[in-house]
Design brief:
By secondary structure, the chain is mainly α. Helices cover 80% and strands 0% of the residues. It is globular and about 65 Å long.
Amino acid sequence: MSLILQILIILSALFLASLLAKRWGLPVVVGQLLMALIIGPLLGLVEESQTTDFLSEVGVILLMFLAGFEADLKLLKKYVKPSCLVALFGVLFPLVIFYTYARGIQGFDNQKALFLGLVFAATSVSITIEVLQEYKKMHTRFAAVILGAAVLDDILAVFSLSLLSPDSHSNSPSKIGFQILGQLLFICFLFLLSKYLLDLIFKVSKKISKKTNLFASDTSLSLIICFFLAILAQSIGMSDVIGAFFAGLILGQKKESLYEGSHHHMVENNISTMAQSFFIPIFLTSITLPLELSGLDQNILPIIVLTILALLSKIIPAYLAARIFKITRPESLIIGTGMVSRGEMALIIARVGLTGGMLSTDLYSQLVLVIIATTILAPLMLKFLFKFSKTSDLENLA
């Protein structure tokens, strides 16, 4: 089947899923993921390829850029302490819980047990962002904590992967030191970019656009900055989505001065339309494609156990961390639930484990199903919490 036909199937099927999800009162992302399961693993109409992997990566980058663009930096700064604790608990608890499970019940050795814990220590906030945007909750206190925690969680997971991956013996202390130094320099560069360089870049761009009548220059320039920071972050051992998030964050905080008039709304709409209509459906489909359904019925019990552990190992520690900082119970529960989705980050780590011989094919298939289960369950639980929590509890930004 040609790649163009597969893309047509993805876009058509997930568009239909969006309409049905809205009609049935489900989060749109849940309907899209379920449809992706049907056209992918169940019917085999869509298959994994380098092209779909690439397009899905672009989708995640654009999604995280938009999350940063919409985020309120003042809220992120205000709740940086609970975000740090939520991220720390959200990494340590799964590591300990799954290490204990793998060693005590499965009989894995130390390295394999730690690697299993790392798979579930990762968080994919991209799915949560989809739900927060759909229900217009991006400017709430709990959204700020979730976003901050997810970025830190991503950094911790990537750093831990560099230590636990099969080729980690090649990572000498000096190499790790250079990696940390590179990340510190990246943060310094972000400050310089936000404080001094952005204004100059957009000033030059505006002069060029007036002479050449390039009306879409603001959108193009924003995308250039987004992908540049994504590549820069990836080159120093961080996840590219972190760079994309910070690109959106620094542009979003200066949008009134950088973009003429109300052009920032046009830029956001242009990128959002492009991402939501093309790249994000491919990203959501790509999450389900690694799933192998054969033989899963024989492993149903461990899959259920792993799914329960995956839910509790994020909800409970994040809830406790948020409560330490006096965040309300409903918001703390939402924060915990918002950290549940593992998504593409866990799939990447699991794939590293499979190719490096750390995970068997059978265990890998189980993990993929659990990862997809958490990715579908998290939006459903969030919708339930939004519906049955008091509005005053969820809109309190003080």
